[in-house]
Structures are given as structure tokens and as C-alpha cells.
Amino acid sequence: MTLTFYKYQGTGNDFVIIDNREQILSKNNTKLFAKLCDRKFGIGADGLMLLELPENQEDDFTMVYFNADGNESSMCGNGGRCLVAFAAFLGVVKHKATFTAIDGKHHAEIKNDLVYLQMQNVSEIEKHDSYLFLDTGSPHHVAMVEGLSDFDVFTKGRKIRNGAPYFESGSNVNFVEKKNGNHFAVRTYERGVEDETLSCGTGVTAVALSMHATQLTDKQEVIIHTLGGELKVTFKQTANGYEDIYLIGPAKQVFKGEIVC
Ligand SMILES: N[C@H](CCC[C@H](N)C(=O)O)C(=O)O
Where's the active site on this chain (predicted)? Predict the structure, then answer.
């Protein structure tokens, strides 16, 4: 079969996207999705997304996300932003979008060539001695480090991802260094990619909320510098935790292609 695909990247987190509204692919194609994400034997990507028809009246489409290992995964913030850009490219939406992903409903808007993606509310942030843990649609371990640019993210991230208390189910691991004011630098070891990625949207969101929750910033707008570029997270602290959370940044189509599989 010849499959048409699109390659997108959001601050260097890269994805294969397939328009699956005609249901050409079933969701249990783990081996195929892993092969398509393979950087030597396939197209190469951190993850793969299927754009599918909406399952209710309010939605414009449905998002299905798979990590590079081919397994369906939890929410992908950068992927969600790229899928909104893809839906606009197809003409499925104009500048605003409403879609359902594995963690629920999302609203998004494209403004000044940036995608604003509303993330799920966060009601709980676990504060431990040397790290924080929270779920922003995907699970995230957040730890402050010094010398981030020389930090061994792969070795240290892999150890945390596989160790207690995460073990098999794992967590994404974010290492953070404060730059100044409301600017922070982040590097992320991503579960399901099992490597460092150039940025992680749910991770950047987790870091921004963590920095506010630990008073490392009093701003409710945080700028995160990743290896793949700059992302902005805005939010409101409420009696229930954090709400009105937006992940904001670019999402670009890199190329369209066909692959025999
Ligand atoms: N690897 C993550 C999902 C993708 C998250 C990331 N690509 C993002 O932009 O949020 C996990 O298995 O929890």
C-alpha cells in the first residue's frame, strides 16, 4: 500500500501525521507506526498522529497519538499544536479548532502564525524533596539542575523514567534551569521515545506550572527555552489549582510524502 503522510514539527518535536478520516489505518498498527517513526528504516519522528473524524457535534476532529515506539500514548502538546495546523492546512478548520484527544476536549486558535492550545486543568502538583510530579495530559517528573547545557539528559533521564516510583509505566523527565525572571531552560527525556527530544509540550507546560507552584516565578506567563525553540505557557491559579492553561508556539509543515508499506 502507498501511504500519503505529512511531516510536521513543533519547536523540534517532530511527527508523522496521516489524514485518517477515511479510516485507511486501524489503531492497532503498532509495528507499522513504529516503523514509520524509525529514523533509519522509516520516515523518522518522535511520534505519529492520526487525524480522524469528530465523534460529537462540537468537535472539528479527533486526535489519536502514538509514541515513536508505536504504542498509543497519553496527550502530546506539541503534537496537538501541529495537528491544529494540519487541520487548518486541509481546510477542516479556519483559525479556531475544537477536538478531542485521549485526555479530553481541547480548544485551539491560530494567531500570528502561532498555535495557542488549551491544555487540561491541573488540580494536583506533587512536591517531593528533589522533584515535582504532575500530569498535564502526560505524566511529568520535574527537577531543577545546574549546568543544563552539559547535563547528561539521556543517562539521568532514562534512570528516572525506569526507576521508582514509575517503573514500567514510566514518566517523562524534565530538567530545568532558571534563566531570569519568568524565563527557564528545559531539556526533556521523553517516555515512549526513550530519548531526549528537542522539546516536549506537555513537559514545558508541567515545568511552567511547577515554577509558579514553587514560587520560582510569580508570573502567570512563563517563557520556556528548549533546544528546539521557545514556547510560552500562560495560566491562571485558582482555588482548584491551575486553569485556563495555554501552550503557545509555532507548528510547521516540513514536507509531504508517500511511503510504500
Ligand atoms: N512521550 C509522551 C507523549 C508525548 C508528549 C510530548 N511529545 C508533548 O509534546 O507533550 C508520553 O508518553 O507521555
Answer: 76 (proton donor), 76, 200 (proton acceptor)
Neighbours of 150 (CB within 10 A): 7
What CATH number was assigned to the domain covering residues 2-119+250-260?
3.10.310.10
Does this model's pTM top 0.90? yes
Query: 528516572: which residue's cell?
Result: 160
| Cα atoms found within 13 Å of the Cα of residue 77, Cβ hemisphere only | 31
For residue 190, the CA-to-ligand 1 centroid distance in Å is 6
The per-residue pLDDT string of the chain (261 residues; one tens digit each, 9 = 90 and over) reads: 999 999 999 999 999 999 999 999 999 999 999 999 999 999 999 999 999 999 999 999 999 999 999 999 999 999 999 999 999 999 999 999 999 999 999 999 999 999 999 999 999 999 999 999 999 999 999 999 999 999 999 999 999 999 999 999 999 999 999 999 999 999 999 999 999 999 999 999 999 999 999 999 999 999 999 999 999 999 999 999 999 999 999 999 999 999 998
Q: Cβ(29)–Cβ(36) under 8 Å?
A: no
CATH number assigned to the domain covering 126-244:
3.10.310.10
ipTM of predicted assembly, 2 dp: 0.94
**What residue segments make up the domains of the chain, in order of their start?**
2-119+250-260, 126-244
